Amino acid sequence: MNAREHFHDLLASLRPLLHAGEDFTLDYRAEVSEFVRFNRVRVRQAGQVRQAYATLALYLGERHADFELALTGVAGEDRDRLRHALERLRALVPALAPDPYLRADREAWQSESAQAGALPDGAEIVEQIADTAAGLDLVGIYAAGPQYRGFASSWGALGWHAASSFNFDWSLFHGNGQAVKCAYAGQHWDAPAFARRMASARERLEYLGRPALTLAPGDYRAYLAPAALDEILDLLSGGFSAQALASGASPLQRLYAGQATLSPLLTLDERIAGGLAPAFTSEGPRRDLRLLAAGLPGERLIGSRSAAEYGLTANGAGAHECPLSPRVAGGELDEGDVLSRLDTGLYIGNLWYTNFSDRPAGRLTGMTRFATFWVEDGRIQAPVETMRFDDSLFSFLGPHLEALTREPETILPAGTYGARQSGSRTLPGALVGRFTLTL
To answer: What range(s) does the Metalloprotease TldD/E C-terminal domain occupy (predicted)?
Structure first.
């Protein structure tokens, strides 16, 4: 039984079991993923994970509860499990207090999409990785395969999403213990593109053999590669939440209050088309949102509970109110001109351990860690010892943002704890005139 049939079989078995006055939502998640772990360019572990989960929520007026269950993929067994979950919820929900912020989506919407990725056989990809990384100390993990999401409600909502993707996350280690961290991800494996990315990593690895430079704390020109900017965007993703903004917990509070500005070069959209996340959440259909418009605040991400509490209109953001498919528009800087435009300063390939040093003020901190280089006259001179930065996003993404690269890069989350993460981010690199290192 394929995933779509599995979901619809569960749904068909559930509907006749409802009693008068009862409503439900059924959230379905599944994947068939291939994993390959590498160490010193050799395959150390390979396997496949096939798993499916469902979350059943039962509603009695303003009372509700949910039950998550692991599924076997065997139709009869899973129907029994779902029936048992309904019985458990039926015994629990009447004893619960009414939820004053419950605003269940009662629209009868429909959404279906299937994004087929063009992935070669796993053995072919492993062979290419081994060939392009020959002679290197490579450590990494390759994960690939289809992911599925289904949603249905007793009010007539029905959504289905299927997407295949891959993510190869790896590091190249120098003999001195330093490393270059890289990733290649998407829906269509392009052998020449991967070879170019590995060749670029080899080149940066050679520079790690030079004596590392220790910089004094201070302000420096810097280029933040897409992977580095991704760490920052990940930290800021909750800042567009209606709940966070209403409660004063957003790092973008000053922007929305008109007390600070971001660069007019920055436009950020939550894009449905082209993203790997479903076009719906358990709270309804998602839609395209402009979160930043030329540096100015745009729409907020509004879940149903925030809508109820603050008198807003929900826009399918889901309970977490974080963007699932954010896209930062590119600029005018060609990637081949990055070093010459930087001239003298820091090339930062990755940031690490990012966190807030002052959330209400939009101040961030973190480490450079992986392969940060000192550049002079447009040429890499030496690696830089690990440094901590502490800076305001309203500074380096405000008046000190000089340019964004022309072609944004799509980055997929590498997390696999419990299940492969879904969603994607598409973002360029950023050239900044001032970036503050503290120690």
So the answer is: 217-437
